[in-house]
Amino acid sequence: MPSTTETFPEIPRVPAQDSSDQRPPKRRWSLPQRLVLGVLAIMVLTVFAGYGYLQFTEGKIDRIAASDLTSLNTLPVGSNGIVNVLLVGVDDRSTLPDDWEDYFGVAPGRRSDVLIIAHLVPGERIQMLSIPRDLRVNIPGHGTNRINASYVLGGPDLLVQTIQAETGIPIHHYVEIDFAGVGAVVDSLGGVTLDFTYPGRDTVSGFMIEAGRHTLGGEQAVAYARSRQYQILKNGQWTDAHGGDIARTGRQQEILIALFNQVTSPSNAFNLPLFLPTFADQITADEGLTFALMADLARDALTLTSANIDNATLPVRNIRGDDGRAYVVPTDAARAVLDAFLAGEPFPGP
Known about the structure:
The protein is α+β, with helices and mostly antiparallel strands.
């Protein structure tokens, strides 16, 4: 039987389609749409960059554990919304930069030198109350001494406890900075500008300034704020600027007000990205004083000017204690000053 071969018709091949042909037509954005998308992208990047910057900045703050600072007042802030912050300037010569002049001398150890309680009365004023470091107090567990000794004896916690017991002012947060830190903060802002009516000097430290308006760098600003033997040239003669530690406290407040002016000056906006991490890097604070809280306080403070800063020093008089040491004690006017601060009302006049 003859073999037969069955044949089938050839099936034409269909050319493979390019996979790109399967995609939907590419959408073409109009120019306004592209502009909107660009702005949204920038906003998203700015938010994440800003968050990262805040996280980076807050991470620079040296924190005191809550277990080491139990004396802080943790009760809810009263109806007036006032948050009291204790600002402590620490005398620690070991941290001074090597290139600073001999304005400060040599003193071992670390002690509290500047004590200022500050708060913001929202929409009204910033109040600063300085506590003289030689104030005679009863330090819990240690008896009678100057108030700055509480820092040496028991650190920030005992200092806070002593101040609250002696003044009746609740302390909600704690911030500490040393001399070198203040200098670094001042330098990060390009210095602080002060007006000097007369030439001034401190023959012990070597600090000297001519009359007029001057921008002080960090080293000079700290030397001026801490001068103990400050003199002015008046009527051709050098005379002591009397006032002792109280006058010195006034110079410290003067520096703080000048710093506030620098921070709030529009011309200083370009320095703020350097100022914020520098400030964070130089301070020690309690764990509850978050950068977010500081930002909230700063936002409210920026609605004010230096004319809204109400500053005072606790009124005191000099005495000689039974132990033969020199102290200061509150005068009759001190109660009115403390009451005004507690209420967030303007300090009484002299």
